[in-house]
Amino acid sequence: MATSSPFTLPRSIGAVLWGISVALSWMWGLGLFFSVQFTTQFGLFGLLTFAIPNFLGLLVFGLVTHHLARRDSGAESLARFFSTWSRPFRLVFFLYQILAITLTIFAFIRYAWMPLGFQPELLYLPLTLMVLLSAAILFGEEFDIKRIKYSHGVFFLLLVPAVAILIAHSIGKGTGPLAFPKLPTNDWNYWGYAVPIIIGFLVGPWLDLQQWQRAIQMHRERVSIAAGYIIGSSLFLGLILFHGLTTLWALNWGAAEFIRPGITGHNYGQEVLTKIFSAASPWTFGAYAVFIGVCVLSTLDSGYIALKWFLQSNASTSNHPIFSLIPTRFLTSPIPLYVVAGVVALVGALLRFELEFFMIFYATFFVGYSMLSIVRCYVVGPANAIPQVKMFCIGSIAVVIFSFGYFLRSPVLQIVGSLLPLGYVFWLLIKPSAGDDFVADTQELDTPTPSVASATSRENAVSVASPVTLIDSGAVQHSLGGHFEDKWFVHTLIATYADTNSVGNVYFGMYAMWVGKTRELFFNRVMPKFNLQNSPYYILTRSFEHKFVRETREFETVQVKIRVAGYNRKFATLEHEIYDSLGQLLGKGKQSLLFVSSSDYKMLDIPPDVYSAFIAHT
Fold first, then answer.
1. Buried b vs exposed e over 138-163: b needs ≥16 C-beta within 10 Å?
2. pLDDT in the model for residue 388
3. For the chain, what is the largest distance between any 2 Cα atoms, rounded to a whole number of angstroms?
4. Which one of 400, 418, 446 terminates a domain?
């Protein structure tokens, strides 16, 4: 059993610790403070409307990822699945996480700090933001995903007495008159909130990097993901109900006077508990401060670790030229993103924005992506591509429709804004031309390129005299040293007896030999002055992979195509494709190159002459 500690942790204890971490990481600004707001609006029924879908969404995510992890063998099965499955959603994952961090920081400043009334705000609020960011970064750096369950376990030990003190305070005050102004739950206004909440929270965890990272780590440690999320979602439900029921108690004893109109004209009450507890005893206020602090900090440190994991993963696999221009540590550090999120949150708080302004995106824009991601877990078919432009446009339209509905108090528009992305995803999946929207990268590579297709369509290019295709004397001739077709360097050859095995097919190792020869000809073409005798560097192969698609035979005309797919500061990646004379793909793959000093074999950055030679062909 793989664990992050020197001793073996029983799986049952591991499930409990991970359950605690799941619950605390999901108690972010949205769940923490909107539970208060919705309770002030609709009472106990509103609290349950908010809490139950939230609980079910988290629980279902855990049960489904548990099943996904068990579809394949090995501790890395879920990690492999996530790596492939998440590829088309990388930008959405990034935006979701950044917005969640911004929202949490904003909610803490707006509803936990500003109600205390410290003046001047321009002095206290930046200092508060600095402390919050420093704590989040400190805990994020100190506790990685392997150890975060222990730090959250300690947080939970702090949380329990704080909750007990608040409960004791509430009991000591009595039940109250059970009368405060609340909105009805049997009209369109209620459903204008309830429908987006139900939709948004049922599918919300699927785009949360924090939850995916936890599920993957649980599986690596041989801890049941299902058990961890059953415990975690149950603890989360308990915390949400505690916060909401405490709000009901406070409203029944006069906290309703703290409900205020916002800049949109709606009534807001997210800070009623902060205000009523700040006037109570130091122990009571301290307990509430611990409760809020633990919930916020356990979200921000989780977000830091998840973002770092996400950024490092993308930096290590991406070949985009930007990675050769910007230091890797800067690109993979969440600190700049946290600073940006903090500044946005601070400005929003100073402008007296409200939590709902950020929430709109989780009820509209991300809903379509979340639903599509769930479908892609089980629907076998088009993969590794989604209609990005269309999804972005429909998400943006949904945001605008919902916003108009919210600001104009039109619940119908709010419902339409939430349902529109779901309807569009359903339409994308069932419409007759769905395959045109979801084109897999394998399908794109398997389709002959225009140059190959046009070459093979010429009547004088080839003649088929037998099952084996031969070059006709009238065929188009190219340089023996290869030629360029757009970004591809192409070398044409004829397979002969020496390339075959005992049964007449080309021996599998020859494909790699052909690629190697084509690569040498490519280097010779783009760097004709390279001399191995006096070169200050060597070019070495870091990795090589090839997928076999079809076999070919003796005397078949073969085209080997190679191009520079990308590079970063240290490595260059080449892609290759091999076609027969009919334009049929025989195989494809890629290789990674590294550069070392010819004197001591120390790794180098890509040499300037290699960089200048390659950049014209990317």
1. ebbeebebeebbbbbbebbeebeebb
2. 82
3. 100
4. 446
Please report the pLDDT score of residue 475 as a whole number.
43
Cis ω for the linkage preceding 327 (within 30 of 0): no
Q: Are 353 and 431 within one domain?
A: no
Q: Are strands 585-597 and 572-580 parallel, antiparallel or unpaired?
A: antiparallel
| 3-state percent breakdown (helix, strand, coil) of the chain, nearest 5 | 60, 10, 25
Q: Give the pLDDT band (50/70/90) at residue 23.
A: very high
Contact 336, 137 (CB under 8 A): no
Residue 451 has pLDDT above 50, yes or no: no
Q: Which two tokens stand for residue 168?
A: 């004791």
Return the pLDDT at 305: 95
3-class SS of residue 241 = helix
Do 344 and 286 fall within a single domain? yes
Nearest to residue 104, comparing CAs of 281, 358, 335, 319?
358
How many other C-beta atoms lie within 10 A of the C-beta of residue 50?
A: 27
Pure H helices in 143-224: 148-173, 188-203, 209-220
Cβ contact 335:137 at 8 Å:
yes
* Per-position DSSP letters for 393-422, written without gaps between them: HHHHHHHHHHHHHHHTT-HHHHHHHHHHHH
Q: What average pLDDT does the segment 527-543 reach?
A: 84
Residue numbers of the domain that contains 561: 449-615
204 contacts: CB under 8 Å, gap ≥ 6: 54, 57, 362, 366, 370
Q: Are 420 and 394 in contact (CB under 8 A)?
A: yes
d(CA 346, CA 110): 9
Map tokens 């950055």 to a residue: 605
Give the list of residues 6+ apart from residue 461 with CB closer than 8 angstroms, or none: 455, 472, 475, 476, 581
Tokens of 524: 């010779």
Q: Cα–Cα distance between 97 and 338 in angstroms, integer?
A: 11
Rounded to whole angstroms, the Cα distance separating 58 from 371 reads: 14
Q: Are 574 and 565 in contact (CB under 8 A)?
A: yes
Per DSSP, 598 falls in state T
101: amino acid identity, one letter: I
Q: Which two tokens stand for residue 318?
A: 């991406």
Kindly state whether residues 529 and 440 are assigned to the same domain.
no
Say whether pLDDT at 215 is over 90: yes
Residue 7 has a pLDDT of: 52
Residues 6+ apart with CB under 8 A from 148: 21, 301, 302, 305
User: Identity (one letter) of the amino acid at 78?
Assistant: L
pLDDT at 464 > cutoff 80: no
**Residue range 333-386, pLDDT digits in tens:** 899 999 999 999 999 999 999 999 999 999 999 999 999 889 888 765 444 467
Same domain? 549 vs 475: yes
Residue 73: count of CB within 10 angstroms of its CB: 7
Over residues 388-394, mean pLDDT:
89
Would you say residue 466 has pLDDT above 70? no
Asked if 130 and 180 sit in the same domain, the reply is yes
Kind plus residue range of the DSSP H or E element containing 494: strand 488-494
